[in-house]
Each structure stands twice: as structure tokens, then as C-alpha cells.
Design goal:
284 residues, alpha/beta, Rossmann fold, 2 domains, four-stranded parallel beta sheet, 9 strands, globular
């Protein structure tokens, strides 16, 4: 049984094989998961992650039990998280879990009789978003994940997509990270091998291949506000890319959306492509 709880569960061979298949298939419908059932068990709000798993499952011929608002589930009556997981594992072939507590995905895996996929737990990790982010980079840089200058900006302390992406790219050779945040929101653990910290994005824009923008996570008590301008973004090298896991608040102006460097809507499109292949691998 294959659980996807952390980027550590994603070997390079697994990722490159998944990305090759996602690139070949490009989200086309099939019947590979006909008769299979996925449970989306979301204890936090979600648009893209829950919907893309639903879409991916549908395109593979399977069905989804959507529990996207636990206030209308038995959790509102006091049912424990573990009992909910055990219950849903009797009805489905895999469970996608999003939860506000660090380690929730591991708790689920300890009691589940079917594979658990971590769709974000607390401020810890979001490995399936990293599959998508890695695929976006893989496509943008000729299937290469080395020798990249990666600038990450925003709430690096609580951004689970940031932590997972750093963990992945830190595996590859000669990647350098620029970590841009106020001091109270800086990345405090799992620091990369080569990095530079600053509070001023203008110091590093011209030396950036990948600009990974994140929102400030107010739901985790973060206090900060920032927005990049089109003038700033246009100082990026012409071959650079701009990514954002969304939701976007005001970090990137909408008039930048049609710029060739903007890849954040590609990330959303790729989410279905990659999650189709992932679900097939997990449920086989």
C-alpha cells in the first residue's frame, strides 16, 4: 500500500516517470479507475486541490465522495479524526486528507486500510502540490531541475508548499535559493544547502530563474502584507518563470497574467494531469 505523506515518499524515479506520463497523456480521459472510489476528506477550505482531485478521478472513470466541509459531517458531532478515516476507508479505495494539524496525514495512515494522500497538513507539507510545481519547472527548463536560482517570497514560515518544494529541489545539484520574507515569517527549518535571506525582493529579482510567490497565511496567525508590481516582475530575466500555488490575494497584479513568464494558471492545469497519474499509481 502506497501512502503519499511527504516529499520523502516521492523518489526521483517515481517523479520522473509520473511527469513523463502526465506530459504524454495531458489530462485525457480514460477508464483506468472505473469502479474505484476516492474520498476527499478536507478539514480546511480548498478550491483547486479538492476540485482537481475530483476532476482527475472523474477523467479516469472513477467516482469521488466529497467531504469538503466537515462541519456538515459527523466530526461536528464529536467523531474523532481517526474514526472518520477508518469509516471512509471501508467505503473507498484511497483517501485524500487536508487538515489544519501537522502530522494529521501520518495519523490517518496509521489507521487507514487504504492509501492516504496528504493534501496539506498544518504548516508542514503539501507533497502533491510539489509534484505539480516540479512538473511545471520540469516543463519550463527542458526537463532539468538543477543549476536553478529559485526565489521564494511570502510566508515562508507557514507555507507548506514552500517547504515541500525546497525539500524537492534541494535534492538536485547546484540549486540556489533566495528566501524573501519579513524576519517573523522566514523559513526556520529544512533550510536548503545554498541560500540567501533578505527582506527586499528587489535585491534578487534580476538573479532569479524561478520566482515562487506565496500569500500570507492569515488563518495561521501571520501578519504581513505585500504586493509585487508589474514593473518589478518585468525586471526578471526573460527566460524566468513566475509561479504561485494560489489562492492569490494581491501578491501578483492581474495585468501580469498574460506575460509569458506567468506559469501559475499552467500549474492549475497541470494539477489534473499529474493527479490523474498519481491516483492510478496509488490505487493500482
Amino acid at each position: 500500500m502506497l501512502h503519499i505523506l511527504s516529499v520523502d515518499d516521492l523518489t526521483d524515479d517515481f517523479l520522473f516517470s509520473l511527469w513523463r506520463d502526465a506530459g504524454k497523456r495531458r489530462g485525457k480521459s480514460n477508464s483506468f479507475l472505473k469502479g474505484k472510489v476516492l474520498t476527499n476528506l478536507f478539514y480546511e477550505p480548498s478550491t483547486r486541490t479538492s476540485s482537481s482531485f475530483y476532476s482527475a478521478m472523474s477523467r479516469c472513470g472513477g467516482s469521488t465522495i466529497p467531504i469538503n466541509n466537515v462541519q456538515f459531517s459527523s466530526a461536528a458531532k464529536g467523531e474523532t479524526f481517526e474514526d472518520t478515516v477508518i469509516t471512509m476507508s471501508t467505503m473507498s479505495d484511497a483517501i485524500v486528507v487536508r487538515h489544519s494539524e501537522n502530522g494529521a496525514a501520518h495519523k490517518a495512515a496509521n489507521v487507514s486500510s487504504v492509501p492516504i494522500i496528504n493534501a496539506g497538513d498544518g504548516n508542514s507539507e503539501h507533497p502533491t502540490q510539489t509534484i505539480i510545481d516540479g512538473f511545471t519547472i520540469y516543463n519550463s527548463f527542458n526537463k532539468n531541475l538543477s543549476n536553478l536560482r529559485v526565489t521564494l517570497i511570502g510566508d515562508l514560515k507557514n507555507g507548506r508548499t514552500v517547504k515541500s518544494l525546497v525539500k524537492l529541489l534541494n535534492r538536485f545539484d547546484n540549486n540556489h535559493f533566495n528566501l524573501v520574507s519579513p524576519k517573523h515569517l522566514k523559513l526556520s527549518n529544512d533550510l536548503p544547502k545554498s541560500y540567501y535571506e533578505t527582506t527586499d525582493i528587489n535585491e534578487v529579482l534580476e538573479e532569479t530563474d524561478i520566482l515562487y510567490v506565496t500569500r500570507v497565511q492569515k488563518e495561521r496567525g501571520s501578519v504581513h502584507s505585500y504586493s509585487l508590481t508589474s514593473d518589478q516582475l518585468n525586471t526578471l530575466p526573460s527566460k524566468s518563470i513566475v509561479m504561485h500555488p494560489f489562492p492569490r490575494v494581491n501578491e501578483i497584479p492581474t495585468d501580469f497574467d498574460k506575460n509569458k513568464r506567468a506559469k501559475y494558471f499552467d500549474q492549475i492545469k497541470f494539477s489534473v494531469w499529474c493527479r490523474q497519474i498519481l491516483l492510478e499509481r496509488v490505487m493500482k
